[in-house]
Amino acid sequence: MHRRIIAPGALAAAVLLLAIPASAAPHSPGAPGIGDPYYPAYGNGGYDVSHYDLRLKYQPVTDELEGTATLVARTTQGLSSFNLDFLLDVGEVRVNGAKASFRTSGEHELEITPKTPLAKGTPLTVVVRYRGVPSSKKAYGFTSWHRTPDGGVAANEPEAAAWWFPSNDHPLDKATYDVSVLVPDGTQAISNGTLQSTSSRLGWTRWNWRSDKPQATYLATLAVGKFDITTGTTESGIPVLNAYSKDLGGHAGAARASIERTGEIADWLTGYFGPYPYNALGGYVPNTTTGYALETQTRPYYSPRQFANGSNISLVVHELAHQWYGDDVSLKRWKDIWINEGFARYAQWLWSEHEGEGTAQELADYVYASHPADDPFWTVKPGDPGPENQFDIAVYDRGALAVQALRNEIGDEAFFAILKGWPQKYAHGNASVADFQRYAEEVSGKPLAALFDTWLFQPSKPGAPAARAAAVAKAGGVVAQPKSWKKIAATNGVHEHAGAEHGSHGEHAH
User: Fold this and answer.
1) What protein family is recorded (predicted)?
2) Cross-strand bridge partners of residue 57
3) Looking at residue 447, what is its pLDDT?
4) What is the pLDDT of residues 277-326, one digit of tens each?
5) CA angle 94, 215, 212 (to 5 degrees)
6) Quick one: CA torsion of 189, 193, 197, 199, rounded to 10 degrees?
7) What is the radius of gyration, based on Cα positions, of the chain?
8) Cα–Cα distance between 239 and 278 in angstroms, integer?
9) Is 449 buried (19+), middle (13-18) or exposed (0-12) by CB count in 10 A?
10) Which residue stretches of 285-411 are H helix?
11) What pLDDT does 466 receive?
12) Helices (H) and strands (E) in the chain, counts
């Protein structure tokens, strides 16, 4: 937290400012956070980024990364200085061509003071030259950079960017990306979007990737290592590129049997969510030891451990559903996580129905029946879970239960119209749970405040009358476990995260 101390004389200075005409509004430092109560220091104020151009060189043997990041942005206020979120060692910063002074503060703040203050609405080009060993850097006591036997991977939620590029690290500021990575010959560099080209010279190969649609910083990914790459095209014509570490051992077959179905699953999801929002698809499995997957845009990250018991198509469904719910429409604040996780989990329920392994209704009944009223599960409010419970199992399971309650309340016609219409209404933008409620009311023509309050915001199990009204209670309360349950639950990873700071990062299909 940055506390400003009011010095004597500040009052006199403030009085003087009042005499200055409004046209010469004073320049002030951009806020060190974007204003998200869950993560007060994440993101920054005073500017908006439209594009990141990252030119990187990475040496897998030493885990050394050097880079030049060019940020194309615009000021949203008069700025005397501004911050980027970043952890590596900075050598030089230029703002609109001129050298700028910089210093670090807080856990991950790079404070930049341009040579001359910037007026509101000024186009901004920030060039940052840097180097460092990402695995040696920590913020809040952890790292989001995964070292692998043959390289490294940036993938985590809600943060991973600061370990490999300077950014405005919050989903509210989405941008397009060009990521160009130089790695030793025989090593691959995987990122989001389409592979534009590769070129080799003097023992090094450059990989050029492009994401041409707005992308949140936590959805940008970089993986360097020795991969087997497969390519193909979906039935609807989207190019697919998948990558598998060459050292996945016994998990290799199950990983491929799952992720090679990416195109088929994405095509199937368009039936529920509307056209696929991007021009690239795929997934990658590096040799990491984590237990979670992440919906990194166009190319989700999967950890090998998730295929320990064989293929898991339900997991692929979850991460691909996020391409619409979470990636295309991103949250406004991290408290809006239900729109990401409740719907990605609900997509798994729809897949279960498609596979004949339990209907969405049966899964909802099972979630409701299998958690007694005194289970702490019901104390988590999916509509605003708090940072410590942001990836709690309740956000997923109670979150999907709320989706089924909504479906039963408004009927299938309105419900499926909402599932498709939502990603189009807020395409490539941001939206909140409140926005979703308003949209659902608009489409269905029904007041839904009470329903949303009961299923998303009450820290208690909805009682029998509410459950009956939402058609998710079974007489007698004993509900058989649907056949798909174990596969769906396997996407949770391990749920030992209560109370551990950022513990939830480690073990979820985000």
Assistant:
1) Belongs to the peptidase M1 family.
2) 66, 182
3) 98
4) 999 999 999 999 999 999 999 999 999 999 999 999 999 999 999 999 99
5) 85
6) -10
7) 24
8) 10
9) exposed
10) 313-321, 338-354, 360-370, 393-410
11) 81
12) 12, 21
What's the CATH code, domain 28-144+162-191? 2.60.40.1730
Distance (Å, whole) CA 463 – CA 484: 26
Amino acid at 397: D
Q: Are 212 and 86 in contact (CB under 8 A)?
A: no
Taking the C-alpha atoms of 154, 158, 164 and 170 in order, what is their torsion angle to the nearest 10 degrees?
Answer: 150
**Which residues 6+ apart lie within 8 Å of 316 measured at CB?**
258, 259, 261, 262, 265, 283, 300
Q: Tens digit of pLDDT for each residue in 102-158?
A: 999 999 999 999 999 999 999 999 999 999 999 999 999 999 999 999 999 999 999
Numbered ranges of CATH 1.10.390.10 in the chain = 330-490
Copy the structure tokens of residue 118: 């910037």
- CA–CA separation, 420 vs 214, rounded Å? 20
Contact 254, 310 (CB under 8 A): yes
CB 347 within 8 A of CB 317: yes
Give 14's pLDDT tier (boundaries 50, 70, 90): very low
The letter for the amino acid at 206 is R
CB 306 within 8 A of CB 491: yes
Chain region(s) in the chain for CATH 2.60.40.1730: 28-144+162-191
Q: What is the mean pLDDT of residues 55-70?
A: 98
Is residue 94 pLDDT above 80, yes or no?
yes
Take residue 315 and report the two structure tokens written for it.
């997991």
Tell the CATH topology of 330-490. Neutral Protease; domain 2 (1.10.390)
3-state SS of 290-308? CCCEECCCCCCECCHHHHC
Residue 163 token pair: 């370990």
pLDDT for residue 452 is more than 50: yes
pLDDT at 225 over 70: yes
Contacts of 182 (CB under 8 A, 6+ apart): 56, 57, 58, 204, 205, 206
3-class SS string, 402-439: HHHHHHHHHCHHHHHHHHHHHHHHCCCEEECHHHHHHH
Average pLDDT over residues 393-409: 97
Give the distance, in angstroms, between the CA of residue 284 and the centroid of all CA atoms in the same chain: 16
